[in-house]
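Table S4 entry, UPF0060 membrane protein BH2744.
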Amino acid sequence: MVMATTLFLLAGLAEIGGGYLIWLWLRDGKPVYLGLFGAVALALYGVIATFQAFPSFGRVYAAYGGVFIFLAVLWGWWIDGKAPDTYDWIGAVICLVGVGIMLWAPRP
């Protein structure tokens, strides 16, 4: 469980960070090297996910989607300075509950 959580966090940071760097380059007129670093981070995101021990690609990526939502709320708060409201937190927590059910519910 610790390894799965760590990999989800690393993948999330790579995806959100990479997307953010590309956003800064294309939307905010920042230097092109930020876009290139963003592209590398996005490629790393794709690689990091392959280290998950779960056998199903679909389940891993669906569960990761819930982690991504939670991390995106935190990123918006900590990096962009946009405080989440109550509904953002409720939605993010619901997503994390879904992740737990998808990955760790007992299966036959």
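The chain has one domain: 2-104.
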